[in-house]
Specification:
Shape: globular
Order of helices and strands: HEHEHHEHHEHEHEHEHEHH
Strand order of the largest sheet: 1-2-3-4-5-6-7-8
Radius of gyration: 16 Å
Low-confidence stretches: 177-185
Helix content: 40-55%
Strand content: 5-15%
Number of strands: 8
Number of helices: 12
Distance between the termini: 34 Å
């Protein structure tokens, strides 16, 4: 099955950053989401499998619209496990991106077991703080999953310490404050935030929120261990050009800005 650490180690061995791509499970349907993620896995090192949710506090309009479409087409949380299993069996590596409520309703221990058995490597739960995550952390430990946590430019030194101490796999560095969505340029705070994280931990640091093209991916790849792309990939999938954008992004993480 491997581990999240191995994903970043492999990219590092090739002298590049890892490409992490987000797509919602069930978008636009469960079957089509499996096909899209399998296609994306040919280009991305890690797939963030999103769990559509009715009250996504962090997600911008693109992800919200995709989640609404998935839910309207009958998506259920249990479908996430099938998506992870089939994408993993096709050669992809998956981590689940979810709010806490869907996992809590499923049953954290049952979800961790099912996710691990399906080949999932970990979780990103933006509204679950480390100090409130004891139950989930124990479930992850029991099933070999890595709990990934987010930091932002506003993260205090004290919060940074507690976050990296609790985290596994990698640190998700949100490049700017606010909701997700493709941006015209990379936030100037991103590089400074990565440097702060590296002072606190040896875990890889992946930067997300706003990346939309290969040029921006290259800019981030020059100072981060991973580049996370979500909204732009959803838009590309809806326009039938997922492979085109994924190819561009994969080239970006391999050709660092300025080279």
């Amino acid at each position: 099955m491997g581990s999240l650490a191995e994903v970043f180690q492999h990219a590092r061995s090739e002298g590049r950053a890892a490409l992490v791509g987000y797509l919602p499970a069930g978008y636009p349907t469960v079957e089509e989401s499996i096909s899209l993620m399998t296609e994306l896995a040919h280009h991305a090192d890690l797939i963030e499998v999103g769990i559509p949710f009715t009250d996504p506090m962090m997600d911008g309009p693109t992800i919200q619209a995709a989640a609404d479409e998935a839910l309207g087409n009958g998506f259920r949380v249990k479908d996430t496990i099938r998506v992870v299993r089939e994408v993993t069996e096709a050669g992809g590596r998956c981590v689940v991106m979810s709010y806490w409520n869907p996992i809590l309703q499923y049953g954290p221990e049952a979800f961790a077991q099912d996710l691990a058995e399906a080949g999932g490597l970990g979780s990103i739960i933006p509204d679950l703080l480390p100090e409130e995550a004891g139950r989930w952390r124990q479930a992850c430990d029991e099933h070999g999953l890595d709990p990934v946590y987010l930091v932002a430019p506003s993260t205090t030194p004290e919060r940074m310490h507690s976050t990296v101490e609790a985290a596994g796999g990698f640190i998700y560095a949100a490049s700017h404050m606010g909701v997700t969505g493709a941006q015209e340029s990379v936030s100037s705070h991103a590089q400074e935030l990565v440097a702060r994280v590296r002072q606190a931990t040896d875990l890889p640091v992946a930067v997300g929120l706003g990346v939309r093209n290969g040029e921006q991916a290259a800019t981030i790849a020059a100072f981060a261990d991973g580049v996370i792309v979500g909204s732009a990939l959803i838009q590309a999938a809806g326009e039938g050009r997922l492979s085109e954008l994924a190819t561009e992004l994969a080239g970006g993480v391999r050709k660092k800005s300025g080279e």
